[in-house]
Amino acid sequence: MSAMTLVSTVTVGAGGAANIEWTNIPQTGKDLLILTSLRGTSGANARILPNNNSSNHTWLRLFGTGSSTGRSGPNANASNLQDIPNNPTSTANTFSNNSIYISNYTAAAAKSMLVDSVQENNATAAFQVISAITWNNTAAITSLVLQLDSNNFVQNSSASLYIIS
Amino acid sequence: MTMAYTFISRTTVSSNTATVTLDNLTQTFRDLVIVVDGTLSEAASASIRFNNRTDLQLPYINVQTNGNSTQIVLSDNSSLIVGGDLVQFNTNRFMIQVNIFDYTQTDKHKSVLSRFSSGQNGLGMTAGRFPATTAVTRLDFQSWMFAPGTTFTVWGVSA
Questions:
Q1: In this structure, what are the phi and psi dihedrals at residue A159, rounded to the nearest 5 degrees?
Q2: N or C end: fewer C-beta atoms under 10 angstroms in chain A?
Q3: Stated pTM of the model
Q4: Whole-angstrom Cα distance, residue A128 to residue A136?
Q5: How far is A159 from chain B (nearest CA, A)?
C-alpha cells in the first residue's frame, strides 16, 4: 500500500483565485508534499503559509534565469516562493511546475520545507529554483494557504496536497 | 514525477549520535527515498556511506549556498558528502532528501540525488554515484552529531 495519500487537488476556476488552500489537514502522516501547476495574473511572487501564518519565515534560494544564475537570501519574510508561478508574459497556456516538500509537519518543532520549481516559457527567460524555507513555529500544520503576494492565480492553476506516511 | 512510496522504516535518535546505520535494507523495491529531519548538536556537514565500504571513492558534484556565497564542488570521497564547507547544519532545523536509484540492481552503479536545506543557514544539492554493481544493503549517515529527535525515514519506490 502506498504511503503517499492524496488529500485533495484544488483547481482554480473561471475568474481566477487569490488563494489555494487546505484546511483540517489530517494529522496522521509524517511529511507533506504539494505538487503545483501555477500561473499568475501578474508577475507577483508567491508564498506558502502554514496555518495561514506569515510570521517567522526564513528562506534561501538558488536559481537560474535561463541566461544567468544567482542566489538570494537569507531573507526573513513571508514571500518565500519567489519566481515560482508563471507570469503573464510567459507563453500562453503555460504554467510552472513546482514541488514543495514539508518535513515532520505534525512535530512540535520548527518546520523545514524544500522547494523545486521550474517555469515554462518558449523563450530564454524561465526560472529554475530550489529553495530552503524554515517556518520557525512549533505548531502542527493543520492548514496551508498558497497565494500570490498580489493579484490572482489564473484559471486552471492547480495544486495537489499529499500526505506522506 | 509523482512516485508511489511504500513506508519501510523510521529511526529516531534518542541521544547525540555520530552515525546512524540503516542496515539489512529490504531488497523488494527499485528505488529508495530517505528523508532526514532534525538538528545537530554542533555545526557540521553530513555524509552517507554505502554498504560500509571504505575502499571505494564516490564521485559527486555538490552545489550549495549559505546566502553570502555559492560554491560548486566536484570531488570524490569514500562517503557521499551532503552539505560542506559553506553549508553547515547545526542547531537550526535541517532536512536532507536522498534518492537512490536502482539500489537493488546488480548490473549497474547507483545514482544518487540529494537536496538539503537548513533554512537560512544554507541550501544545496548533490549528485553522486556509488560505483559498485552490488546491491545497496546498508547506509550509514554520519555527522557531528545528530541531536535527539532527529528522524531518518526510508521509503521504497516500486518499479
A1: -150, 135
A2: N
A3: 0.90
A4: 26
A5: 13
Contact B25, B130 (CB under 8 A): no
- Each residue's pLDDT, cut to its tens digit, for chain A (165 residues) gives 568 999 999 999 999 999 999 999 999 999 999 999 999 999 899 999 999 999 999 999 999 998 998 998 889 999 999 999 999 999 999 999 999 999 999 999 999 999 999 999 998 889 999 999 999 999 999 999 999 999 999 999 999 999 999
Question: With contacts defined as CB-CB under 8 Å, which chain A residues touch B10?
Answer: 30
Chain B positions in Cβ-Cβ contact with residue A107 (cut-off 8 Å): 37
CB contact under 8 A, B94 and A112: yes
Contact A112/B70, CB-based, under 8 Å? no
Here the cell at position B102 is: 536502482
Mean pLDDT of B39-61: 91
Q: Which of B65, B95, B149 sits opposite A62 (nearest CB)?
A: B65
Q: Please list every residue in chain B whose beta carbon sits closer than 8 Å to the beta carbon of residue A113.
A: 95, 117
> How far apart, in whole angstroms, are the C-alpha atoms of residue A96 and residue A146?
14
**First vs last Cα of chain A: how many Å apart?**
11
Partners of A146 in the β-ladder = A20, A48
B2 pLDDT exceeds 70?
no
Are A164 and B151 in contact (CB < 8 Å)? no
The answer to whether the CB atoms of A112 and B97 lie below 8 A apart is no
